[in-house]
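Milestone M4 deliverable, item 7.
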Amino acid sequence: MGGERRLLLNEWLLGFFFLCFVSMTLCISSPVFSAENEDEKKTEKKAAKEETDEFLLEEIVVTAEKREAELQKIPMDIAVVRPDEMERMNIHQMSELEKMVPDLKTNDGGGGTGFLQISIRDITTEYWNPTAETTVAVLIDGVPLTRSNAMEGKFYDLERVEMLKGPQGTLYGRGSTAGSLSMVSKKPDIGEFGGNIQLEYGSFDRKRIEGAFNIPATDKLAFRMSGRSVKRGSYDDVGLDVQSMWGMRGSMRWEPTDRQSLVVAVDTDSTDNKGGYGFQGVYFETFGDLQIVANPDPTLSSAFREYASGGTVSTPYKARWYYTEGAENEQKQKTDSWGLSATYEHELDFAYLTVQYGYRTSVSQLNWVMTQSPSLVPLGSTTSPFWLDLDTIDLETGEITLAGEGDENGYGNAAWMYTTYTAQKDPTTGENLPVTKMILYPPTYASAVATDSHSASRNYNLEARLTSQESIAAGDKTEWIAGAMLLKDDVTEIARIFENAYNEVDLREYALFGQASYAPFARLNFTGGYRYTWDNKQYLGWNGYGAGPAESSPDNNYMIRYPRELDPSKWNHYDYDSNYSTYKFNISWQATADILPYIQYSKGMKTMNVARDGRSIPPEQLNSFDAGVKTRLFNGRLQVNLSGYYYEYKNYNQWLTAYQCRIPQFDGEGDANGGLGEFTGCKQISAAGSSSLDYVENTYGPLSPGGAKQNGGNAQITWVITPADIFTLNASYSKNEYDNYNVSDAMLRAFGPLWGVGTVDGVEITNVHSALLPSNDVDRTGEEFGSRPWRGNFTYSRMWFIGTDMLTWTTSGFYEGTGLDQYIARRTDDETIFPGNPDYWTFDMSFNYSSTKWVPEGYRWTARVYGNNILDNDELASRSYNIAYNQSYSFLPNSGYITGSFLQPRTLGIQFTLNF
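Output delivered:
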């Protein structure tokens, strides 16, 4: 291991010296940067800039390291998105930022649950409940947003969005393992009245209105009011994905003296969205010697029969022909939140003092509808009843009826319909013959609310810091920052129906941090940072995610009971302490005023997750090695920023379901488990032709199966071709693979002590198994993960000046590269490799006309027409291959069927903005 680290260190040192060599070569060879006569060249450069001022890229000032500095002077990979760029690329929600930043990905973490998953460089958070910890720190005006279900409502009236890539544990602490994403709202402008109003209408009945007003009160005091409302209908023909949200923000800025300022902001917002599975429609295609033939059932509805006549089934965003009437009204995700922040700054004689306070609270309700789409089943399948004893809820009154004991036969009180298939037998061997013909089959049960979840969160933080007046970016020899932080974060969730749980997780966090830079000679800069964190996390609650089936009745029918143990005397209480360090070390070289290579090591930590059963999951750790170079060439008209990274990730958390088997099964091969062979899972029991695991108890939560190794790079290019032409290009590449990663071992470590051992044929065994992942029982080290290694985008803008008016044409292209190969039955004799998801392009386009005509002096209006996915690319966004039916009946070799999801359809719209 030591040799590997030494080799790695040598590789990164070699990379740093290579960057330095490239920088020196540019300095020597470029006439703009020649050091032959530095003073003379600086004068010439200044004159050239003055002559071609309209050609120059604007200097972007950010607060990435909690002090103002030019973006190009900070030795770190940072992406900045500003309002004008958001307008050009039609970005009005946080989930749309990935259009501009290709190594950022956002995802709805649960198909309509409203929990926004954010990943940077393929480090994500796997969760779909409000108690989980994140890997990307999201902030608004420096105040952390610890709950991801209350982020979208704040994405308006922004000065910019800053995304820092790689661990930011030194200055940002909690949840910044993958990086940080900071929204900076516009502050009140003292001494000037102004504002804007923006109206938009687009496809699918999209309606957006935004406005902001800056109101100066005195020469030392100003106020700003802003707000937004967004509504959109569904992409599908039923109404399963409807968006509705609004937000308001009021802020005050007071500067009683030239050395003091106080900014106070209050905001509130609400989202009331709907979403659900199946809303994209249905896609089925076969390959090899498998066919989709017509469904011969004469009772099929005419609407369904239209799609069940055989061959490929493709119905993008069409669900009315199969969806349960009225179920779209049951799905909901509603969140209400509000917050307060106050930032006080005082310029001392030797430093700047900043004291920041933030308070945030949110309340969410989630009704998650379990739906069923049409499926492919073998020709000859029939419908059979299946009884399940469930809790039910009246959505109007909120009254819950508990699961009963069932009738005298052991049946529950809910009847569902399941498809069953009687396999064709080989007359000679008696073995099942492969399936060669499939039919499209209707949904076999009505959509039903599966989860009724109510959650409430509250957090406040207080941070005080001192920042030196000296700044390396300004040419000083030193700079430093030191501070302390207190964070209190409480979240409570009550989940009902399929999962019954009360979970209360309270975090108290304290931290001391500091960072210092020193540039002793030759424009070299050494930066070091350190943060020490004290975490205390308390869990109170109970988890009843599911109880196993009762004893099988004589006729092989059974029921499942979901208990409701909400007696507080039976709840569990756990108290965990976790103290840890995060740090960074950075070396950069300001080779010239416009070339900055750097290399950095940093360590990130994610505070521990607490599972729904109260178990503590070790904090995730990330050791990061970064290198990059920032350049501006051709008199500041071309900006090229390149970066690369290597990650060593430890304690990678994954959310899985584990079962305590009633009767464990073994393959009988080998000497493991006292000669029983390898553990293959829980025994299965049958009910009306269907089968299910026979288990005593199951639980869903995070585990820590192992680590990962990841590497990749990023390029950001901006080119001012002429005063009227601007071109930008962003591209990213990543490669990720698991390292010392074994899910089965993690389950045994986590649940063996809780569930103990069982006895099979006199042999003691650990009766834990997860049936959800086929590869759980193998070591996944070396297995690649992630979606698409290559992603990128470009934007070209052309401006025409018509007197004082301006017409701007903008076109953007977005590239999603080929996905990783897909493995079926991996590490088995039936392993099959299929090509990954195909690559594709989508394009956006807009025309802006801006004018000062017909409005008072100082006013300007802009009319904008836009189109997203302007070519209406209807390719599949993803494909999944299947080579078995229900993992029970096989197809002929190299045969199977394909399912897929569709790209979002083309959207058109018009927008009007008035600035004053």
